[in-house]
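go over whats below:
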Amino acid sequence: MVDQRPFGHTGVRISSLTLGAMNFGQRGNPDHEDGIRIIHRALDEGITAIDTADVYSHGESEEIVGKALAGGRRDDVFLATKFHGQVGDNPQHRGNSRRWIVRSVENSLRRLGTDWIDLYQAHRPEPDTDFDETLGALTDLVRQGKIRYIGTSTFEPSAIVEGQWIAERRGRERVVSEQPPYSILARGIEREVLPVAQRYGLAVIPWSPLAGGWLSGRYHSGLTAPISGRAERLPARFDPTLPANAAKLTAVDELATLADEAGLSLIHLAIAFVLEHPAVTSAIIGPRTLAHLESQIGAAKVTLSQDVLDRIDTIVPPGTTLNPADAGYQPPSLTDPANRRRGGTTPRAAGPAR
């Protein structure tokens, strides 16, 4: 069984593994019945938390999760979903504004077949929307009983702190969790995000502990071309011929050798590493098939020795993200030259990267 950990200072406890539903629907596994079987198996193994988002397969992921939880299983699940990314073709159906949040939550509630969402998360920052506007709308939803808690995903440390200040000074409900990218290959959040989360008592539920599949065992130094559809869509993160990704391949080879010497699969080594950090509450696993689930769920029982952890630190030093494209979000101050030159204009924030 998967152990249960405190969800920040809320008094809630959730499983140390969270079932991520990004791969359910046309974006991954389009078979609804298979998705339901995977969800039920995860619940039977002791996973009590499920994370999805309105943008995953344009809401289809939420629909599959809703079907799986029908018939009496909803009450025992800590259910999380997200808003921000554009849903459908209408460019107005996106963002962190009150107008969209109020509409988005109703759509998610309908697709999930539930009266409440345990954790409602801003999927990415939106610098041109006042954070107080966002927290004000979310506070109203908490007081209406439609959501229980507020979370963020892939926010920078300054934005995390700003959210705490706004809650204190404006009487808003506070953000209780952050969902950042975290893996052996992408350790940038160890510098500030994780310490800030600890300082404010936030739960941390990292996404992509397998680094987008790089730590699944499929990647090795002999690769010369992308090996998946996602790799073709996101070459900056997956094209093995790029220098930053070549560095990841070298690290993966060394990590695979380390895992073998420790008597572990690379998958278990990778997930167990994320769970070792004292700031981490629960690691999100995103299986597309039942076999994927079975290969990952055992990691919850693995404890890495200090020697293994030290050797990981020599392969990828603490606080290091080998490829900046794996950070999940780059602020407009870096992505748009206009923000670094006089006379520039402030652009809209980029949408979710996953």
